[in-house]
């Protein structure tokens, strides 16, 4: 397939932080399996200097040079931009999404999509009224690893009937030592482990315990607890139970402890138990899976031997959501079938309930 046979998406990038650098870095990396052509058409930051530095670092070897702006609004108004990628902190997502939508732009917005389900509904209503595409950039859901794992679990029944998933995300932040100006200490911006990293183990639970398409998925029952430092949630533990299947999940997140793995090594980031075996998903952290191993039922003293499925590649994994967005736009869709609006709202409703039980309240609630 030649480049002329696949759709092209011209991206406008909002913010020049770490997550945006990962997204852009993936899109400009050479590939042999491209499903779409991606052009970084425009970059917007809080200053022109930041946009120039970003482009110099990541795009100096690209043939097409992006338009560089010292504001977000200039990107929204650029007629050559097909879709806006929003990489700002989640406390600003509602604002940035609504501004892009008002300009008539399609949007791919980082997770967590907004601070709560109420905000997400407002954004989706605006997108529907304007007739533009918008989707939450939960890149984990777009990975081939996830599709293959779900096939093994629910079509091939590789481990029998799934009954439990556990997943944990840890990273260390010295909350007590951070300045009050840090976004990690600002509840109005969604500070805490849940929306920042807890959404990933929650997503592993959803992806591995729910066989149905998003539109048919039920709301699990939820039990949750949270702990705090200086009024900021630092540890969340969630128990999920799906009444129709009796499947359960233990989902945890914490900013009180770092992982032991280096970026080049792997932890077990999720475990899925079934009646005839189990699966361990490996990666640096739950947002960066690299492989999974399928094991037979563990009945003896020693861990049985398993079959490993490896998905390591040069890109980090943002390319899959970018490809699917480009394909959606080419097909005239207004939302993603992988992460439809209803699923974004449901996940936020789960996290809203976790925060209600745990004691985290945002001003926008």
From TrEMBL:
Keywords: Oxidoreductase. It is an enzyme of class 1 (oxidoreductase). It catalyses: D-xylose + NADP(+) = D-xylono-1,5-lactone + NADPH + H(+). InterPro entries: Gfo/Idh/MocA-like_OxRdtase_N, Gfo/Idh/MocA_domain, GFO_IDH_MocA-like_dom, NAD(P)-bd_dom_sf. Belongs to the Gfo/Idh/MocA family. Residues 153-278 form the GFO/IDH/MocA-like oxidoreductase domain. GO terms for molecular function: D-xylose 1-dehydrogenase (NADP+) activity; nucleotide binding. This is D-xylose 1-dehydrogenase (NADP(+), D-xylono-1,5-lactone-forming). It comes from Pestalotiopsis fici (strain W106-1 / CGMCC3.15140). It holds the Pfam family GFO_IDH_MocA. Its EC number is 1.1.1.179. Gene3D superfamilies: Dihydrodipicolinate Reductase, domain 2 (3.30.360.10), NAD(P)-binding Rossmann-like Domain (3.40.50.720). Coiled coil: none annotated. SUPFAM superfamilies: Glyceraldehyde-3-phosphate dehydrogenase-like, C-terminal domain, NAD(P)-binding Rossmann-fold domains. Residues 10-134 form the Gfo/Idh/MocA-like oxidoreductase N-terminal domain.
